C-alpha cells in the first residue's frame, strides 16, 4: 500500500520529526509539504539531516494538491488546521492535526484556553482523540484525529490503569512534569535561547497550562467509560522546563482508596499487549534518554503495599510518542498497516 | 577579626566552593586544608580558578595543626567528621560539618540510613542544625554545627511558614525536587558522566533518600516548636537529576486546612528580615540560575484563595545556600560577624 | 543471507551503538555478546533503549561460541583483540576490531604509542584499514579489519582529495579537531563527569595523541599510492573536548601549491559515488548534529580562488561513521551486502 | 572616590554582566541605565540575580542625565554609540564603548565590515583601543575607549609576545576559535535557541568575520610598534560555536622564524606583571571554565625546542575579559583606581 501524504507546516520541530519518520516509512509517499515562509526552498537546506533522503521543496498552501492526498498532517500553530479541515474532509481526505484545534470537546473551554474563536465547533465532536492505547478502535475508522499533546500523553498513560480500576481518589491527582526545550517549538524567543534555558531549571505556567484541561477531560472520560461516573477529577499540573532538547518526565502522585492492590501487576497486565508502552520492574527509574527518538512510553510504579500513596514515573520523547511518532502510529492504525511500521527506530544512547 | 580556619577534605565540589568563598572573606585566614590523596599538591593545580588567589598545598591529616585553628570545616564523605570532632572540640575548636554526621538526632535512624555505626552518638544532641532562618540563636553559641543538606534547605525553607502557622495537613506534604549533577559530588562514577547525565532526566532513590528523614525531623521540630504537637508528618520526597551543574528546584505540594489565608503575605512577612531568603511576587517562577553562585533561597507561592491546594517553588544553589555558603553564613553568626561577610557575590547570568 | 555475529566487549558506547545498528540489520543474527564484568546480566538492563529489541544476556568470554560465528566484532579496550584474533582467524572467522590493535603498520610506532608489546605483529600487515572510501576493494576480501579511529576518519576524508591530487604542501597540514565527550568512553573518570566536561571547553593531548600517527600513516599512504612519493607529511593535530555527547568537527588547514584549482568541484567529483560522504555547497558550515546517529561524513570547502590557503570543515558522529557505523559498513562490504544495509537511519534534529 | 556612571543599553548579556560587576564596585554609583524597550521596568525584574542588589528602573534615553555622569558605558548594538559620543565628550564625559563603533582606525574598512556609514570618523583616531596589556598608558588619559571584541582579546594576547619579538612568520598566523553562545547576544534568533545550539558544534562566518580586521589591525600595530615594519600579516580566522554559555578558547598556530627561543620563558616574562594574564606551565591545557565569571586571560604555550611550529592556547570569559570586565578594568585605569577594583571575583567551578 502506498499512502499519499501531505504535510501542512513542516518547519518546526514536530514537522522535521514527522519527516524523519515518514521518509523511511515503507508505505508513505510524501506528495507535498507546505510552508508560507519557506515556499520554494529545499526542505533539506533547512534540515540538513534530510540531505540525501528527501528531495522536496516547501510549497505554498495548495488546496487542490492537498485534496489529492490520502492523508494530511497539520504540524501548524494552533488555529490553522480548523481553517482547512472541513474542506479536506469533504474531499475525502483523512486528517491528523498535531496541534490542539480538535483536542477539547467543549468549545467554550477550548476558546477560553486558546484565546480565539473556534471556526468549526461541530468537528470537535467528530474528531477522535488519537491516543491509541485508549481509542484504538475509534481511531481505525476516524477521518479526523486530534493528536494528543505531549504532556497529556505521558500523564494519561501513567494514570490510566489506576483510573480504569477506580482505585485512586480523583481529587488527589498531581502531575509534576518536566519537559525538554523542544516542546517550546522552533520560534525565536528569548526564553528558549541556549543562554536562557541552559544550565537552568524552572517551573512555568503554574497558574494554568493548556494541557491541564486536556488531561482532565481525558481522565474524566476514562473514569466515566469505566463506570466511575460520580468521580470529579481535581488535578494539579505543574510543568517545568529542563535543560535538554527532547524528553518529558512525568512524576505522578495519587492517593489510593485501596492500598492493597498489586499495582505493578496491574500496570503490567494493562499494557502487556501495548507495543509502545513499556512497564519496567517495580521500583525502576525510567530515563528520558531511553526513549530519545523512539515511540515508547516507559514507566515504573513506586508503591509500598499498604500505603495509600503511589508515585508513577512516566517518560516519553515529546517529539515522538508525544507528537510525530504518535501521529504515525495513528496513521498506521487508520490505514490498516502494522502499527509499528516506520516506528522501529531505537533510542540513541548516549 | 581574623578567624584561623582549617578545612578537612577539600577536593570535592563543596570543598572548592568553600575555598572560593573563604579566599575572599575579609576575616578568614585559611591555615590548613587536608587531603589524603592530594597531600603535597597545590590546591590551585586541582582547581585552576584559584590560581593567583590561593597559594597553599594540600596537607596530610594533621591533628595538631587543626587544633590550633578557631574553626574547622569538614567537607568530607559521611563518617569522617565524627572521628575527629570530639578531639577538636576538647581543644576548644569550633566545628562545622558539611557532611551528614550530625544532622539526625536519633542515632538509630542515622545508623539505618547511613549504614554505619555512629561513633559519638552523644554529640548528636550537642550539634546545632545550621539552618540560620530557624536556629540563628542556637547557632551563635554552638561549638558544633551540622550544616544542612541541600534538598533539606530548599524544602524546609519552602514549607516553613506553613508549618509554623499550622495551616497545612502534615500528611499531605510532597516535595518533588530536581538537582543539578554537582549534588552527586566529584567521585568518578558512571552515572554522573557527561554522556550519562547530559540530555537526560530521571528520578532516583524514590524508594528512600537520606534527606527524607532529615527533612521530616526538621519539619516535626518546627511543628512541635510552634505548638502543633499532635501532628504527624507523612512526607513524600522524590528527587530527580537534571542536566545542569548547579541548582536545586523544589516543587512543594500541600493541602491546606485553612484555605483563606493570604499565603503570599504570610511568606513575605516571615522572611522580610532574612537576607538570604527572597520571596518573589505571588505567581512568580524562580529560576535556579538566578541563584547560581549566590547564597540566596528564592521562592514563590502559588495559591488561589479558597483552594485547599498550594504549590511552593523554592530554588537554591546546592553548593552555596545548600552547602558551602550556608556554612560560611553559620561561621559569620558563630563569630559575631556581619552575616553577609564574604557572601555578597551575585549570581552569574547567563 | 544471515550473518552470525559475535561481539566481544559490548558495555561501552561503541558497543551499545553497534547493538543499536545490528539489532535492526536485516541480515544479522547476534549470537553472543561477551563481557567479563556483566556476564549473566541482561544487555537491556544496562542499555534500556534496547528493551523490547534485544533479549540477550552478556556471556563470559567463550572461544568456541565465537568460533562458530561468521564475524566477530571487538569493541574492547586496546590490547584485547590481538589476544584472540589469530585463533578466530584460524577458525575461519572474520574479525573487525573497533579498537586500535591493528591500525598501525609499524609495530615500533604502535608499541611506542600504545605502551604495550604487540603480541601478533605479523597481523599488522594482514589487517586492512577499514576506511571504505579509500580501501573498498581490499576490505571486500579482508579477513581482518582495523576499523579506523574517529578523528582519523574525519581528518583523512577531509584531506583526501587534496592529497590524491598532490596539490597541498604536506608539511603545512593542521587538523584542529573538536570531539564530543562520548569519544572518551564509558569508564568512570573525573575528567568526563558532567560537572567537569559540561560548560567547559579545552584542548587535550596537544603534545601527542595516538590518532596523530594513524592519520599521518594514512595520509602518507595516499600520497604514495598516488605517485607523490617524495612528500613528507608534517602534520599538526590538536584535539579538543567540547560539551556535547556525540560528534566530531575537524577544521582542516593547508597551504596549496596550486591555488587555481576549483576545489569544491574536485571534492564533489571525488565523492559523487560515495553514499556516506556528503560534500555541501562551497562555503557551507556543516553541523555535527546533522549527522548525529547517522553514518555520514559531511564536509564543506572554504577557498577563495587564487589564495594559497584552504580550510576544510568535516563532521561525523564519532560513534557511527567514526566507529560502529563504519564497522557495519565494512561488514556489508565484506559479505557482499548492500553497503547501506542497516545504516539508513536519519540524524536526530534537534 | 565615587564615579558617577551611566549605562546605555543594559538589556543584553554584556549589560547584565556590567551591572553584576559595577553593583559591587566600591567606587561606582550607577546613576542611570537606559533602554528604549524596557523603560520604566525594574532592572531586577529582567535579571533576577540582581534582586536585592540593585533598585533601579530602566530609563528612556536621557542626554542630560548622561551628561551629568563621569563615565558612560555603551552596551548597545553597533552604530548606536557613535550617535551620542561626541555630545557626551563635549560635555566632558568619558566614554567606554563595548560595541565596535570605534575599534577600527580605517573608516573604509569599518564601513565595509559593519555595513553602515560612520557618523564621526574623526573619533576613530581619538579613540584608544582598550586592551590594557598593550595600551595602558594611553588608556589612562583617554576620553574615549573602544573596548576590544571578545575574540580579539583572546587572540591578540595569545600572539602578543611572539609579535613583539618578531619571531613568527606573520603570514602563517591561524586562530581557530571557539565561543560560547552568549557571544551571540540576547536577541531572539533561531540559530541560538537551546535546541539549535545545544548538542551541536559548527563553524560560522568562515568566509569573513568582523573580528578578523580588528585582530589584523591590532597585530600590525604591535609589529610596527616594535620595529618590524616590513611585515605583512596574513591571518586566517575561523570562529566556531560551542554548546556552552560562556567562554572563548583560542587555539593559535604560527610558524617560527627562530625555533630555538624558550617561548614559555618569553611568555612568562612578558606577562609577569599583568594581573589579568596568567601563563600556565608549558604544555598545560587551560580550560574555559577556569575563567568563568573572572577577568583573567589564561594561556599556555606548546612548543618543542627546535620545531618551527608553535601552538598557543588562550582562554577568556567572553563576557568578562572579553567585554564587561575589561571595560571595568579600563575604567579603573582611567580613574586612577587600583586596576583590580571590583574585579576580584573567582571563577565558578563547577
Account of the protein in words:
4 copies of one chain form a homotetramer. Chain A is of the alpha/beta class and 350 residues long. Chain A has 2 domains: 124 residues, 3-Layer(aba) Sandwich (Rossmann fold), CATH 3.40.50; 167 residues, Dihydrodipicolinate Reductase, domain 2. Chain A has 12 helices and 13 strands. Chain A has a 7-stranded mixed sheet with strand order 8-9-7-10-13-12-11. In chain A, a hairpin with a 6-residue loop joins strand 12 and strand 13. In chain A, helix 8 runs parallel beside helix 10. Chain A is globular, with a radius of gyration of 20 Å. The two termini of chain A are 36 Å apart. Chains in contact: A-B, A-C, A-D, B-C, B-D, C-D. At the A-B interface, strand 7, strand 8, strand 9, strand 10 and strand 13 of A face strand 7, strand 8, strand 9, strand 10 and strand 13 of B.
Number of domains of chain A: 2
Beta percentage of chain A is 15-25%
Largest protein interface, residues of each chain: A-B, 41 and 41 residues
CATH topology of the largest domain in chain A: Dihydrodipicolinate Reductase, domain 2
Instruction: Summarize the amount of helix of chain A as a percent range.
Output: 25-40%
Low-confidence stretches of chain A are none
How many beta strands in the DSSP annotation of chain A? 13
Number of helices of chain A: 12
Largest sheet of chain A: 7 strands, mixed
Helix/strand structural class of chain A: alpha/beta
Amino acid at each position: 500500500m502506498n499512502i499519499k501524504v501531505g504535510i501542512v507546516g513542516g518547519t518546526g520541530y514536530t514537522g522535521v520529526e514527522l519527516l524523519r519518520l515518514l521518509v523511511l516509512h515503507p508505505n508513505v509517499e510524501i506528495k507535498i509539504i507546505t510552508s508560507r515562509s519557506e515556499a520554494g526552498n529545499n526542505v533539506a537546506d533547512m534540515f540538513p539531516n534530510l540531505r540525501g533522503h528527501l528531495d522536496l521543496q516547501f510549497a505554498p498552501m495548495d488546496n487542490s494538491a492537498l485534496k489529492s492526498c490520502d492523508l494530511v498532517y497539520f504540524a501548524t500553530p494552533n488555529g490553522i488546521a480548523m481553517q482547512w479541515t472541513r474542506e479536506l474532509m469533504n474531499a475525502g481526505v483523512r486528517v491528523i492535526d498535531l496541534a490542539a484545534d480538535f483536542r477539547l470537546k467543549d468549545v467554550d473551554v477550548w476558546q477560553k484556553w486558546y484565546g480565539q474563536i473556534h471556526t468549526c465547533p461541530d468537528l470537535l465532536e467528530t474528531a477522535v482523540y488519537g491516543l491509541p492505547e485508549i481509542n484504538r478502535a475509534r481511531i481505525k475508522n476516524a477521518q479526523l484525529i486530534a493528536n494528543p499533546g505531549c504532556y497529556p500523553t505521558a500523564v494519561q498513560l501513567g494514570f490510566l490503569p489506576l483510573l480504569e480500576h477506580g482505585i485512586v481518589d480523583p481529587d488527589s491527582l498531581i502531575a509534576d512534569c518536566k519537559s525538554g526545550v523542544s516542546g517550546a517549538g522552533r520560534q525565536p524567543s528569548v526564553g528558549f535561547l541556549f543562554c536562557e534555558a541552559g544550565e537552568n531549571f524552572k517551573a512555568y505556567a503554574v497558574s494554568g497550562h493548556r494541557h491541564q484541561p486536556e488531561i482532565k477531560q481525558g481522565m474524566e472520560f476514562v473514569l466515566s467509560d469505566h463506570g466511575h461516573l460520580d468521580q470529579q477529577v481535581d488535578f494539579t499540573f505543574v510543568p517545568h522546563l529542563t535543560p535538554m532538547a527532547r524528553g518529558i518526565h512525568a512524576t505522578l502522585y495519587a492517593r489510593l482508596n485501596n492500598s492493597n492492590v498489586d499495582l505493578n501487576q496491574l500496570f503490567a497486565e494493562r499494557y502487556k499487549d501495548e507495543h509502545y508502552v513499556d512497564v519496567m520492574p517495580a521500583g525502576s527509574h525510567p530515563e528520558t534518554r531511553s526513549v530519545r527518538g523512539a515511540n515508547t512510553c516507559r514507566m515504573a510504579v513506586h508503591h509500598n503495599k499498604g500505603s495509600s500513596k503511589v508515585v508513577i514515573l512516566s517518560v516519553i520523547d515529546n517529539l515522538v510518542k508525544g507528537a510525530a511518532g504518535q501521529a504515525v502510529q495513528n496513521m498506521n492504525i487508520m490505514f490498516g498497516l502494522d502499527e509499528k511500521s516506520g516506528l522501529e527506530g531505537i533510542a540513541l544512547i548516549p
